[in-house]
Design a protein that fits this description.
273 residues; alpha/beta; TIM Barrel; 6-stranded parallel beta sheet; two-stranded parallel sheet; 11 helices; disordered N terminus
Length: 273
Amino acid sequence: MKAVITIWQVVLTFPLLILFSGAILMSCNSPSGTDKKNNKDSTIKDSKFSPNEVKKTLFLTFDDGPGIGTNNVRQTVEYEKTLVTFFIIGKHVFSSRKQRQTWAALKADPYIELCNHGYTHAWHNNFNKFYLCPDSVITDFKRTKDSLGFTNNIARTPGRNIWRTGTVRKTDIQNSMVAADSLQKAGFILIGWDFEWTLNPKSSYVSTTADTLVKKLDSLFENNKTRKAGNLVLLAHDRIFKNSYNALQLRRLIEKLKNRKEYRLSWLSDYPN
């Protein structure tokens, strides 16, 4: 009788042991919370294009947030599920409760990459004096990195189209060269832009419609007018999308590019060094 009971105990216990061991294996092989987010980001990126079709990689970048217009851009990006990069001014994050809320929303969005645009925007647009003080420039950018917890070293210099990557070196205004070199030595990767989408100075509307802008981008690619062949960095400022017309043009631009198989929209961290 004892032998029969023992056999039945083994029979009943064995499936439980299998389930328990399976659960252990699953828990050991499943990623942590951080890894899940990284895997999600990787899936988002990998699902956007077929490498055999891509000929043009476009990097949509937005400067000076968080501020007026930032939420319109973020909502468009979220709706279109498009990878973009925001260059953040550190001081703007702490300027108001609304801006802190906008910053939190940007951080939570899996389609948005966040990069460094300095803390004071070159001492509140005092560009010439700012760039003549390299140590202060480094301090300004480090303050943003430390206060916002950036994990990447990608930065953009306010008011200057400066490049310092592994293979691209450009300084648009020469008295900024020492400061730019100092930032690079401090570990920052400086990425400027190939083309800027601006406002019409006589109105509050974008100077170029989405349709015309796509033609311009095509021309820049075809005529090799970018820093890196096959790659184009487009700059816009959050504030120009504060009105509904400009926000609609942004959405139209993204839709048109997404429908073009030769285009890929990506984060600036994918820019070839």
